[in-house]
Structure formats: structure tokens, C-alpha cells
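**Paired protein data**
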Amino acid sequence: MARSMDGQRQQPLPEGSLPWESRGDTPMAHGGPSPSAAQPTRTAPGGGEATLLEAALERQNMLRALQRVERNSGAPGVDGMTVEDIRPYLRRHWERIRAELLRGCYTPQPVRRVEIPKPSGGGRALGIPTVLDRLIQQALLQVLTPIFDPHFSGHSYGYRPGRRAHDAVRQARAYVREGASWVVDLDLDRFFDRVNHDMLMARVARRVQDKRVLKLLRAYLNAGAMVNGVVVETAEGTPQGGPLSPLLANILLDDLDRELAQRGHRFVRYADDCNIYVRTHWAGERVLASVTHWIETRLKLRVNREKSAVDRAFRRDVLGFTFLPGKAAKIRIAPHAMRKVQVTLRRLTRRSRSERMSDRIQAVNTYLRGWIGYFALAETLSVVEQLDEWVRRRLRLCLWRQWRRIRTRYRELRGLGIPDRDARQIASSRHGPWRLSGRALGRHLGTAFWEQRGLESVTKQYHRLRIAG
């Protein structure tokens, strides 16, 4: 029989199983902490106390990490390995990888640098780790989160268990209702690219004593990035794209949370987005200047002075939402979020896109289900109703373009039961497609027509989600 790293005999692996699986293993549910996540320090097989790295590499913790990586899917890293390839790879190489991790000599691979466009213009650099490194980072995340998260500020909402963006928006509304109707909107310039490694690791070391974990975290920070086939060193920053990045950001910015709380400010922070609510414009300007100086001198980060501003709360957005003027401060969808959904829907319903109408409708349904699942928090029904009608009009435009010729249009309109006179008038109209897709076609190809063809009403989904809470 083979022997493990601790010298104990190992039973032969069942065919097709992973190195940390046994015949009696039952994968844990996706939700809820595993024993290893809740209690990262445990008794080792030899009778001593296992350290944090052993807890991260413990069987159930690794199974949870693997399930999460597979569920999240994602693009391959610099080695080209896909999520589907990871299990066969682990069956062959896990014992070697685990030994390297325990000895402290494991070397992460560089991340694959990609740039995605931002809605406001420009781009955001993402660093995509290899699937193996995503697995190891996820395993570390699951044992580090219970150590750090209970000590984070109640004003922090981003990437934390049991907290979400909606909670931050509701808290912001509560501040506005209390009379703090001015907001200091802080924008940290390229935050994830400018994190000081030494400052971050010093804060991690406050609660983590396992030097191998600290060395591994430092190795991930210094792994570099592959850009156009060349590995570029990363002397600062924590690349967006890896499982550990949000936790490391919260660890560093927890100092900002504590400073703002000590000053008595009303604020919400979601990752690197921070909004501070004050009663007057003058107070906002004073807070902006003071907090900017503190961030740049104490955290060595840079505040983007062009994007940061002091303004009325209803003129600035918080996580895709803003508020209506007035004491009630009703939540509404921010204008830029509406523009973004329309850009995506235009792409899904563009006239040059050659596909069946049923496939087009399915793509629209899939996108809007996720969209309304987030934006159902808004309290402005009229905006959702307008979007519903706009989507139907876009689909009528596609249908009109597909028919092309006058006689085809006349035949199709008659086939839908439209009276002969109306069908002839619409089919031979000289008006443009967008104008015809409005009232002329809307009278005959309305809500019922599209629901029969499978289009899901965003308004109905909105009502269901609002009732469900």
C-alpha cells in the first residue's frame, strides 16, 4: 500500500475517484459551511493539532471547493486547462501538488490578463487564474472567511456570507430618509491594480499564523500576468478574477470602514464602492477632502477625483439603483442601468442576427430573468412596464425585417387574423420599420401575441418577486 505524507497507510483508490474521496464520501450540499470551514484548526492524525493549511487541504473542504469551481465554470487560464479537465488531472497529480503545498514550495502560474469594457467607458483588467489555482484559492477562501468575516464592519456588504447588494441599497435609503440626502461618492482609482502587497499581508498576518499560508498568499499576489505571451511581474495589486481577490480587498478596506465608523459617518461599502451620506453639501465637501487624504496617506491608494463627487443622493447611483426625490426616497433603477439593459437587448434582437424567433425569444427570456431578479428591488413599476413594451417593439421590428417583401408581409399579417384593409395598409406603408413596430403593429401584435410565443412578461415577474419579498 502507498503511504501518505503523514506516514499512514492509504487504501487503494476506487477507480475514477479523486485522491481525497473514499467510497463512503457524500458530497456536501452547496450551501452552508463545512466542518473544515467552521473549525479550521483540528486534531491531526498523529494526535497533534493541524494547522490552517492542513484544514484547507482537508477532504470535505476540497470537495466543496471543487464543486464551487465546477459550478462557477469560467474560462481557462494560461495552461489552457478547462473546468472539465480538472478531475482527471487531480486523479493523476493531486498527491504531488498536495506535497508541494505542505512543503511550501508550490508555485502558482501567472494569471491570464483580459480586459473587459466598462459601461462608463474604458476597460477593466481581469486576471484569470488556472483552474487548479482557482481550486486552491477557493479552498483557502473557505477556511479564511470564518477567520476574518466575523470581524468585518457591519457597513461592508460586498462578497460576504449572508449579505448582498440589496442590503446596502436599503441601508442607503434609510440614511436618506433620516435626512442625510447628500452623498459623498468615493471612487477608488483602479483599486484592484494598486493594492500594496506589504500592507495587505501585514493585515492578513494579524489573524493568520500559519507561515505556509502567508507564503502561498504572497505567491498568488506575485504570480504575475500573461500579456501577449509575456509574463509581466505584479509588484502591487490583487487581480480581479480569482476567488481570493474579494476577501483580500475586504481585509485591506476594513481599515477604511473602521476609520469612517470611528468618525461617526453614515456609509455603505460594497467592495471598492463606498458612499458616505451627509446632511449638507458643505459637510460632504469637507468629508470628501478629509477621507481622500486619509486613504491616500494611510492605505496608499488613489482616489479618482474626476469620478468622486458630492451630490444629491437621487443624482448618484448605488449598485445600479438610485432614489426618487422626496422624504420617501423610493428606490428606482439608475438611468445608466437602464441604458445598459437596452444595449444588451439591442444586441439580442438586432436585425442582422439570423436566427429563429423562438431562439431569439429564449435568449431574451434568459437574460431578463436574471436582470429582473436583481432589479425587482426597485419601487417604480412604470419603468418595468416601459421596458416590457420596448422589448415587444424590438421583437416586432425583427419580425417585420424577416418578412422583407410587401406581399410576404401582407400574407403573414392576414395569417395572423388581421383584417384585409389593415393588412394592406400596414404592408404597403412607407413608414420606417421602427415607426411601424410601434402603434401600427402593436395594435395587432400585442402582449397576448408574444406570450403565446413564449415571451415572459418582465412586469409579471416583477410582481411575483415583489410579493415573494
Q: What stands out?
A: Confidence is low (pLDDT under 50) at residues 1-16, 23-49. The two ends are 56 Å apart (CA to CA). Residues 40 and 55 are 5 Å apart (CA to CA). The beta strands are 111-117, 123-128, 182-187, 225-227, 230-232, 266-270, 273-278, 309-312, 321-323, 331-333.
